[in-house]
Amino acid sequence: MSITIDREQCTGCGKCLKVCPGSLIYKDEFGKSYIKYPKECWGCTSCLKECAFGAIQFYLGADIGGQGGYMQTRKERDLLHWTIYKAEGETVEITINLKDPNRY
Ligand code: SF4
Ligand code: SF4
Question: Is the model's pLDDT at 65 over the cut of 70?
Answer without folding.
Answer: no
